[in-house]
Specification:
By secondary structure, this protein is mainly beta. 13% of the residues lie in helices and 38% in strands. The protein has six helices and 29 strands. It has helices spanning 16-39, 236-239, 289-293, 298-302, 374-383, 390-393, and strands spanning 55-56, 58-59, 65-68, 75-76, 83-90, 100-106, 109-114, 118-123, 128-132, 147-151, 156-161, 166-171, 177-182, 190-194, 197-201, 216-221, 229-233, 250-252, 257-259, 266-270, 274-282, 307-316, 319-326, 329-336, 341-346, 348-349, 362-364, 367-372, 403-409. Strands 2, 3, 18, 19, 20 and 21 form a six-stranded mixed β-sheet that branches. The chain has a five-stranded mixed β-sheet with strand order 1-17-16-15-14, with no helix packed on it. It has a four-stranded antiparallel β-sheet with strand order 5-29-28-27. Strand 19 and strand 20 form a beta hairpin. It is globular.
Length: 413
């Protein structure tokens, strides 16, 4: 496979070989990520303390809406009942992307973090604007990208370099280097910018065990450097089991930000100075805390009968989309939160007609969007080559970059 989007897994009865390959890569990525952040970021007693006073963040006591999930068919092919395609944007072929880790669509710009190329910026027509690939040891250069976000207030692209323990700031307009700031701790696995705050997903504290002020899962900072608020004290069973099944914990929904911790079933909305529990997801046969305390083999846990790893949480109007793992498969769930009923929980979602969609990968303005990889498009075309528009008939699976599909809610939603 030339392109694998970390948030995607294709499913079809005729594609089990593809599924196994993709799933193994997915699992391998999870394992490597956990190892990387637990082993490479080391500290000494001379580390600069990021903040001597960190306030306890406010966690609202409001009662979340309960969502009961049940397994349905393997393929849900009636997506037009809830969504309708709006447009497709093919990303420029230069540079050719290898594996997409994250996509941010902000202020009419598409930012794609690709493992091989770095961070590529496109306009909303897919036209290439600039490439940020500054690996090196000199000024303005990073060792590797560990996480990134966009400061929408200052129009800055901010990268966290775990190896250098540094935040790198670049212009979000052209990728020009602006400045760097030492960031010894924490060691975030993920970052976002919302409501005037940098939000850091802080999975582990094993590299700074004496600084108990940072033994929390979610940290908030006004300037990106000094931690102002902290949420969710680390639990010992998770610290002793440094394995994250969720591909991401922070979920940008354009006008709101959702957060869900590893092995948790509560989806929180992050506000400017608090977090609010919005949804309590009741998964079928959820993994019990006692199983986490046993520290099981990661592969066996992923392929067990337990449900775990709520991720890719996106909402548009009354429709909520999220995914989780059960029996070694990644399941997509659509939920009508206004009517309080599940629409589907399947291994694959699709339209009945020839419209393209893979997984729900984000929200921009009033649309969901889906990253359609060349492999996915090639497979869909091989199923029904005569049913698609010329836009896709001329698509070259080997030499073209992914397409981003945009979808609005159907009128009955």
């Amino acid at each position: 496979m030339r392109i694998l989007c970390d948030s995607q897994l294709l499913y079809s009865q005729s594609m089990w070989r593809v599924i196994l390959i993709a799933m193994n890569k997915y699992i391998a990525f999870i394992l490597m990520t956990g190892c990387f952040f637990s082993c490479t970021h080391t500290h000494t007693g001379k580390d600069k303390i990021v903040s001597s006073i960190v306030e306890e963040g406010v966690i609202s006591s409001s009662v979340p809406q309960k969502l009961t999930v049940r397994l349905t068919e393997d393929i849900y092919d009636r997506l037009e009942t809830v969504l309708q395609p709006v447009s497709y944007v093919k990303l420029s072929n230069t540079p050719l992307l290898g594996r997409i880790k994250k996509v941010c669509i902000i202020d009419e710009h598409i930012f794609v973090w690709d493992v091989a190329s770095g961070i590529v910026c496109y306009d909303m027509s897919g036209k290439f604007l600039f490439l940020l690939n500054a690996r090196g040891q000199g000024p303005g250069e990073y060792t590797d990208i560990s996480a990134f976000t966009i400061n929408t207030h200052l129009k800055e692209l901010v990268i966290y370099d775990n190896a250098k323990q540094t935040l790198m700031f670049y212009s979000a307009k052209n990728g020009k280097f602006l400045r760097s700031e030492q960031f010894n701790k924490p060691a975030p696995t993920e970052m976002a910018y919302f409501g005037g705050y940098f939000l850091y997903n802080n999975r582990l504290h094993r590299n700074y065990q004496d600084d108990v002020s940072l033994h929390y899962s979610l940290l908030a900072s006004k300037d990106g450097i000094h931690i102002d608020h902290r949420y969710f004290k680390h639990q010992e069973r998770e610290e002793q089991y440094p394995f994250s099944v969720s591909m991401r914990n922070l979920h940008d929904n354009y006008s709101k930000l959702y957060y869900c911790r590893d092995f948790d079933n509560i989806i929180y909305q992050v506000d400017e100075d608090s977090v609010i529990p919005r949804f309590q997801v009741e998964l079928p046969q959820p993994v019990p805390n006692s199983k986490i305390e046993e520290r099981p083999d990661e592969m066996k846990l992923l392929r067990s009968g337990y449900s775990l790893g709520i991720t890719d949480i996106y909402q548009q109007g009354g429709l909520l989309s999220f995914r989780f793992i059960k029996d070694g498969a990644i399941l997509s769930c659509l939920y009508d939160i206004k009517e309080k009923k599940q629409i589907c929980c399947a291994k694959r979602i699709k339209f009945f007609d020839s419209s393209f969609v893979d997984t729900i990968d984000g929200v921009y303005k009033d649309c969901f969007y889906s990253i359609l990889t060349p492999e996915y498009i090639g497979y869909a075309l091989s199923e029904n080559p005569e049913e698609f528009s010329d836009f896709f008939k001329e698509y070259d699976e080997q030499d073209d970059n992914p397409v981003i599909g945009f979808y609005k809610l159907s009128t009955n939603m």
